Amino acid sequence: MVMMLPFVTVLLSAWFAWRGSCAAAVGWWLATLVIFVAWCLYHMTSPLNISL
User: Fold this and answer.
1) What's the structural domain count of the chain?
2) pLDDT of residue 46
3) pLDDT confidence of 28, banded at 50, 70, 90?
């Protein structure tokens, strides 16, 4: 469910852009950027557990 969050925020951003509300579109785009940065930081710092 959490993995769908960036797709939803990008969809909201595109919807607001199509409706002409640029401030809301940029806001949702920034929210998407924050989510991606948080995911990158989490995955770059978590240990990679591989069982061979």
Assistant:
1) 1
2) 83
3) very high
- What residue numbers bound the domain in which 21 lies? 7-31
Task: Band the pLDDT of 8: cuts 50, 70, 90.
Answer: very high
In a domain, 19, yes or no: yes
Residue 21 falls inside a structural domain: yes
> Does residue 24 lie in a domain region?
yes
Question: Which amino acid, residue 49?
Answer: N
Domain-located, residue 1: no
Among candidate residues 15, 16, 10, the one with its CA nearest the CA of residue 29: 10
> Which residues, including other chains, have CB under 8 Å from residue 6's CB and lie 6 or more apart?
32, 35, 36
